[in-house]
Amino acid sequence: MKTYLRSPFLLAAGLFLMLPSCQKEDFTSSATNDATLETRNGHGGYHHGNGIPGEVYTMSNSADGNEVIVFSRDARGWLQPYRNYATGGNGTSGGLGSQGAIIVHGHFLFVVNAGSNSITSFIINGNKLEMVQTVNSQGTMPISLTAHGDVLYVLNGGGNGNIAGFSIDPDGMLAYLEGSERPLSAAAPAPAQIEFNNWGTYLVVTEKGTNMLTVYKVDHNGIAGTPKAYPSSGITPFGFAFDNHDHVIVSEAFGGAPNASAMSSYQLSYTGSISTISGAVPTHQTAACWVAVTENGRYAYTTNFGSNNVSGYKIDPDGTLTLLNSSGVTGWTADGPLDMALSRNSQYLYILNANRDNITMFRIRYDGSLTPLGNIGNLPASAVGLAAR
Asked: Looking at CB atoms within 10 Å, which of 58, 262, 342, 360 has the fewest?
């Protein structure tokens, strides 16, 4: 049995509880990394793609001053370090146990400062970022963000937890939407992620502690309504993403039990109710947490924090899930895979590895299989969150 360098914890009601949340806890790493490409199992991944260059973003989450860390991405999917940008806020120097701590929305980048209860907005200008503003998150310990049109919502995971909305002006300035703050389904339910559906009419929040998916109807002014909670098909719902048909694809860590993780799919109806399509389809791996769905809606991936790999699923038009590989292993990562991000057009998949402080790079093939491109390292041990374009 392997011993992982960073065991999952979450912060609830002001105390650390021994519940799995797929986050970093012990920041002692046995790896020595540099900013060079590595390969795994002899696969160099020298595939000449015809993609469009872009960027990949993570954040230091340092309690002494949070920074956004920018990597430039070439047309073949390979990354190189570019530079760091201060957010004007502080991180926690610990895991957040969440998905969506840093997001790209059009030509803006938004990031949480969990240690100073704030959100920072940036304008993206090529490889460069220009900081616009840092605002109060209207709660404690912001851990996840989502945006649709000119509205942004934050999930605050500290204290009892809550969500709050902000308007986004054309310059990236954020203004709190009065009356948008809402509670979660219960006090301190260990939330993991908030996300708008494709139409911006509903918000969904996963709650690890209650095993609930909580839904909020959003009116034409961007104001969220009363929360309605629906039970998760599997235990410890964590990361999720919507496919093209508004199906909700959710990972389930099953308390971190060995080889017990799963992925479920749900139908979000026009009335906001949630019903199960595929319930708890096993990964046969450990601690499935973060989720990404390709732009065409055909494939979903989840990182298995406890078994150092990624599982891929085919998504049928009706939302039914089928494992791409019977073993549940679609690709190998480095130790402790955390957040995932897809490049534009979903040509490349990037995974942040907690216990090696690096990023694994994959090219996504037409059938959903993954071609490894190597790892790039030398990230801060506290790094969390991943976004790409």
From this structure: 342
CATH number assigned to the domain comprising residue 304:
2.130.10.10
Instruction: Give the separation between CA 230 and CA 214, rounded to whole angstroms.
Output: 6
Pairing of strands 358-364, 384-388: unpaired
Write the burial class of residue 32 (CB in 10 Å: 0-12 exposed, 13-18 middle, 19+ buried): exposed
How many Cα atoms occupy the beta-carbon half-sphere of 294 within 13 Å? 24
Q: What is the pLDDT of residues 147-187, one digit of tens each?
A: 999 999 999 999 999 999 999 999 999 999 999 999 999 99
pLDDT tens-digit readout, 289-322: 999 999 999 999 999 999 999 999 999 999 999 9
Let me know if residue 223 belongs to a domain. Answer: yes
φ, ψ for residue 148, nearest 5 deg: -145, 125
What phi and psi, each to the nearest 5 degrees, are found at residue 255? 65, 15
Residue 50 within any structural domain of the chain: yes
Evaluate whether 42 touches 57 at the Cβ level (below 8 Å).
no
pTM, two decimals, is: 0.89
Residue 147: inside a domain, yes or no?
A: yes
Residue 69 lies in a domain: yes
Domain count, the chain: 1
Could you list the residue range(s) of the whole structural domain that residue 188 is in? 33-388
- Residue 262, pLDDT above cutoff 80: yes
Q: Cα–Cα distance between 220 and 60 in angstroms, integer?
A: 36
Query: What is the pLDDT, as a whole number, of residue 194?
Result: 98
